Amino acid sequence: MYNPSRYLGGILHRIFVYPFSKKGKLVDTKTFFGTTMKVLLPAGMDLYLLGGKSHDSEIRLAKFIVSTLEEGMEFLDIGAHFGYFSLLASSIVGDKGKVRSIEASKATFQVLSQNIAQKTNIRGFNIAISDQKEQLDFYEYPLLYSEYNSLNADQYQDSSWAKSIEPNVIQIDAFPLDDFIKTESLNPFLIKIDVEGVEDKVVAGMRRLISSGEKRIIAMEYLLGQDKDTAHDKAIQMIMQFGFGLFVIDSKGELQEMNPKDLKKFLLTSQLDSDNIILR
């Protein structure tokens, strides 16, 4: 109803073109904060139609970023995808601030690179973040499922969508975050982590950063899993050892403190399969 011509065009491409061509359609969209960015359909349909992410957790995360970041601050986006949150942060921190966007998928990074090319306060890196410097296998799924690209393909073995899809396996250079921020002379105030099942390895490689005692905020995507100790849970446990508290973001973009033991129950009660949690 908001944008019927774009909706019809996107749906027709997804149903009648993409299944046969397996190629994405690169289109421009204007974000709610005024920046024009490229998305590759059929991925990014919400951005194409609305100029913003449509999942409830991502709407609340955007509100939190808008209310938290200030001019001159530094933002680190680990798992930047097409760069929506990087561009949002860039529009807030301004020329005196810094944004660093990390995306491991080579195909997705090509779109990210175009989106940040004209932004002098953003630099993009086609690398992975892990607990040590090494080369790793990275699993790239077809464009329609590119949000599931990950270093850990085993987590999807019971998912119906993954049973008929063979990911493309590439080699990617990985670095501990502590080494990366030292090289980049970075002191990020807000770190966004969206890495599909390897959160524990990312956190294990940033112990120096989170043990510094400086004021810092970590926004991490949390997926509701059946295991008691998922990579997300292990990451939370490691971070909280250094004096961080756990919070969820309410509908206004404000923080509500949460006991880690109650997090899964909260997601179930809220009918969410995933959420962006905050550690501060």
Query: What strand order characterises the main sheet?
Result: 5-4-3-9-10-13-11-12
| Percentage beta strand | 15-25%
Query: Based on helices, strands and strand pairing, what is the structural class?
Result: alpha/beta
| Gross geometry | globular
- Number of β-strand runs: 13
Q: What is the number of helices?
A: 10
Distance between the termini: 39 Å
**Low confidence ranges:** none
Helix-strand string:
HEEHHEHEHEEEEHEHHEHEEHE
Helix content: 25-40%
Rg over C-alpha atoms, rounded to the nearest angstrom: 18 Å
Mean pLDDT across all residues, rounded? 92
The main sheet comes to:
8 strands, mixed
Description:
The protein is an alpha/beta fold and 280 residues long. 33% of the residues lie in helices and 25% in strands. It has 10 helices and 13 strands. It has an 8-stranded mixed sheet with strand order 5-4-3-9-10-13-11-12, with helices on both faces. The chain has a 3-stranded mixed sheet with strand order 6-8-7. β1 and β2 form a beta hairpin.
Brief account:
33% of the residues lie in helices and 25% in strands.
Which terms summarize this structure?
280 residues, alpha/beta, eight-stranded mixed β-sheet, three-stranded mixed β-sheet, 33% helix
Secondary structure layout:
Blueprint: H1 4-21, E1 25-30, E2 36-41, H2 45-50, H3 56-68, E3 74-78, H4 84-93, E4 98-102, H5 106-116, E5 122-125, E6 128-130, E7 134-140, E8 168-176, H6 177-183, E9 190-193, H7 199-204, H8 207-210, E10 217-223, H9 231-240, E11 246-249, E12 255-257, H10 263-269, E13 274-279
Parallel strand pairs: 3-4, 3-9, 4-5, 6-8, 9-10
Antiparallel strand pairs: 1-2, 7-8, 10-13, 11-12, 11-13
